[in-house]
Design brief:
By secondary structure, this protein is mainly beta. The protein folds into two domains: about 1-70, no CATH class; about 120-300, no CATH class. About 10% of the residues lie in helices and about 30% in strands. The chain has three helices and 23 strands. The strands form ten sheets. It has a four-stranded antiparallel sheet, covered by helices on one side. It has a three-stranded antiparallel sheet with strand order 19-20-21. A two-stranded antiparallel sheet has the order 1-2. The longest helix has 13 residues, at about 55-70. The two termini are about 50 Å apart.
Length: about 300
């Protein structure tokens, strides 16, 4: 069986095809067979000397085969896919990842669990709610979806609860030893003195409050997510796969909670501050703020 398209013949089963081609001297009839041992026979002559072709026919065949052949891999686990014009190398994935298709292209992604959500544009898998929230947001003002408000770099020691007590005593350790929200009036506006830039760095980072296998997103990952929103504001945040609500923030100076907005921490530091995504009715951006501020945490799957 074969298919002909634009003078290209595709043999789909072992056997023989006969075709005619025009020439300046008239039509010529050619016969080609594909044998079970993989050899190709054209007009009763084997086309097999492709490594070092000795005639024009074999040379032309070699050039065509070389152009259309699949490139050899170099690393175990590599995969190749055809994008319509060329073979594209897809690097090997990590243990536990699954291969999915995003915009028609294959991509390795973490497994999507029952409490996860996949952004089909970025391919990133996130928790479907803020830490401490009892449900996925049903609206921007859904209080059950607000969750807790963490000071940057602190563990889930109780300070993140919206009703936690406050104190003006700074901590000299990564673990303050109490569950109070630490207030601060002086620069660099951090609950810890001296500051520690190594907190919340990665899935095994110090004080990582996320469940096993999750971590704080980087500011680059937040920005990548923001760029997929339909609108660059709180409406776009809620309409996104993450369904981000206006959970507010806790002010580092007096400990009060408010704001018709949303702010979620990243793991990325910015000088004496730390970056977070913030959004309101008119705008959304990724920028730095005081580490003693109380903000939402939305974990990303590692």
């Amino acid at each position: 069986m074969f298919r002909r398209s634009e003078n290209i013949f595709e043999i789909r089963e072992y056997g023989k095809i006969i075709f005619s081609s025009g020439s300046t001297t008239g039509d010529s009839t050619n016969q080609m067979s594909l044998l079970e041992d993989g050899n190709i026979v054209l007009n009763n002559k084997n086309i097999r000397n492709l490594a070092n072709p000795v005639n024009n026919g074999d040379a032309a065949t070699k050039a065509y085969v070389d152009e259309k052949s699949v490139p050899a891999g170099t690393v175990t686990g590599q995969m190749l896919y055809w994008d319509g014009s060329a073979w594209i190398n897809l690097p090997a994935g990590n243990n536990g990842q699954v291969l999915t298709f995003i915009n028609g292209m294959p991509k390795w992604c973490p497994q999507v669990g029952v409490n996860d959500v996949l952004n089909p544009i970025t391919g990133k898998v996130w928790m479907n709610r803020n830490l401490g929230a009892s449900q996925v947001a049903t609206s921007l003002s859904d209080a059950a979806s607000f969750g807790d408000l963490y000071q940057w770099g602190r563990s889930a020691d109780g300070h993140q609860l919206r009703t936690s007590a406050t104190t003006l005593t700074l901590s000299s350790n990564d673990v303050p030893g109490h569950g109070d929200f630490i207030r601060i009036y002086d620069s660099p506006f951090d609950w810890r003195s001296p500051q520690n830039d190594n907190l919340w760095q990665g899935v095994n980072g110090i004080n990582n409050p996320c469940p096993a296998g999750y971590r704080l997103p980087t500011s680059a990952e937040w920005n990548e997510e923001r760029l997929t929103w339909s609108q660059n504001n709180s409406a776009g945040a809620f309409a996104s796969p993450l369904k981000l609500p206006n959970a507010g923030r806790r002010v580092y100076s007096h400990g009060g909670i408010g704001g018709d907005l949303g702010e979620c921490w990243s793991s990325t530091i910015a000088g004496t501050t730390a970056n977070r995504i913030n959004y309101n009715s008119s705008n959304a951006s990724v920028s730095g703020t005081s580490r003693a501020s109380g903000q939402s945490v939305r974990c990303i799957k590692d």
